[in-house]
# Entry
Amino acid sequence: MTTTASGPPVQAPARRRTRRRTTDRGFNRAFRWIAVGSGVLMLAVLAAVALFLLVQAWPALTASEDDLAASVPRYPADTSLLAYVGPLVFGTLLAAALALALATPVAMGIALFISHYAPPKLAQVLGYLVDLLAAVPSVIYGLWGIFVLGPAVLPVWEWLGQVLGWFPLFAGTVSPTSRVLATVSVVLAVMILPIITAVSREVFLQTPKLHEEAALALGATRWEVVRTAVLPFGRSGVISAAMLGLGRALGETMAVLMILSPGFLYSFKILTSAQHQTIAAYIAADFPEASGLAVNTLVATGLVLFVITLAVNMGARAIVARRKEFSGAN
Amino acid sequence: MAQRIDVKDLNIYYGDFLAVQDVTMTIDPQSVTAFIGPSGCGKSTFLRTLNRMHEVIPGAAVEGTVEMEGVDLYGPDVDPVAVRRNVGMVFQRPNPFPTMSIRDNVLAGVKLNNRRISRSDAEELVEGSLRGANLWNEVKDRLDKPGSGLSGGQQQRLCIARAIAVKPQVLLMDEPCSALDPISTLAIEDLIGELKQDYTIVIVTHNMQQAARVSDRTAFFNIAGTGKPGRLIEMDETSTIFSSPAQKSTEDYVSGRFG
Ligand SMILES: Nc1ncnc2c1ncn2[C@@H]1O[C@H](COP(=O)(O)OP(=O)(O)OP(=O)(O)O)[C@@H](O)[C@H]1O
Ligand SMILES: [Mg+2]
# Structure
């Protein structure tokens, strides 16, 4: 081999390859910076929100009970801030939990029907309809809750109050206005239904064919295929879906504000009016007229909501991670 | 009890596409029957009609009869679910249920059939099935660990244990060793030899030596060209197929002079 003959053909591709590798590296580096950058940005935004809440809430957190009672409307005398926020937290959690309990089974049912039972055409239409539910603004849900759903479910609430009145949730006088936590929970359930359904449907559709066929070949009926292959595979996905829904239910403001006749009690009587209030609706309702320490108090309750939402999300992650070994990810 | 299968004039469709045409064959009980043939000739497709798994694919259809001890599997009042409980299947890729422990995997089929089973019976069945699949000694200390944590060969034997736990009459295997190393392959071939005492076994394989080693009878499928239906070319004693087949194309295929 002579140098002249072998030189150029060897060098040319080599140079080209180097160049391509440099641009590859460029993309890699750019991608890494974008990834790291957006991660840092998210953290910074989160930290900024937390900081804002803390700073604004601080005067309320440190104020004496007498000062709070003097400047915050509806603040009972001789009550700590914690005792004051308590019923709001209770109302928020109760409404969200009821909504989740109502929505999750229905959403899973719809998602399973769409992914494993319905003929393809019907499945498509249904999926589309459920997605449309997500596009309805919450003010509309509020109006609908007051004028349509409330009167419609009133006979059901009355029946529950009569027949199951011994059960704590259905105890007390059934409000004839229907502007009670039960109605709110149903509206919230409808509002979080689309997100839970959409995520669950995606998860169910991803069940490996291999596992569905394994179940079928053992002589599984359609429902048994769902039980042995689809549901276990989708478990963690459904939990994440439910948590997304819970997050929305916890923070929902407008519909609750419009429908619920508020109260500030630790009460399980979801058919009785003037028992509960949620944090988000409370802040929205009182903020326009608040000033001074009252504003700080409202921000403090907002801080509590922020902490609850964070905790819910972290809890969901823990649940999903706990059964990773059995999740099929390996 | 092993059972005999008679297939008559079977045509198999995917929508309008005729994938396998006019198969007539008899599969003997307590024997191993091997299906060989080039890729795409319809071996898997035909195998899946023997437990009515073919019809779970949208648009799939079957004409003709598949009789098991005289009962047509495609008769009007035969429940496909019942057929699949009688005819077990092992797939090409090991597919234990990833969310279940080894024990629950073995019991999956039994629990499906909605039978209540006592703890001691369950333990016995798990041990018996895993022993039957030559896996017991390797997993007896970790029955509660997930099945997906086993090696590929062990997973495949777990799938065999799961299939035989429901005591089927027939066991279908679609290239059960194609994802396995030679040692696991040998373990499964030995197992097939033992299982044929109790079951009718049908195995699809691309490995001629394997067909020659494990099977009593061999069926050769072929296809005339892409888009054409696959056909059964001939079926005979395995020794005959590999030494003096009746058809020229069979001889070409088994001697590696194919295509
Ligand atoms: N789900 C399906 N839908 C439509 N056509 C299919 C489907 N599965 C298989 N086919 C077609 O049916 C024919 C037979 O396929 P089959 O999988 O039975 O072949 P095979 O003999 O098992 O091949 P291999 O040895 O590669 O596994 C092929 O033409 C294939 O393209
Ligand atoms: Mg195949």
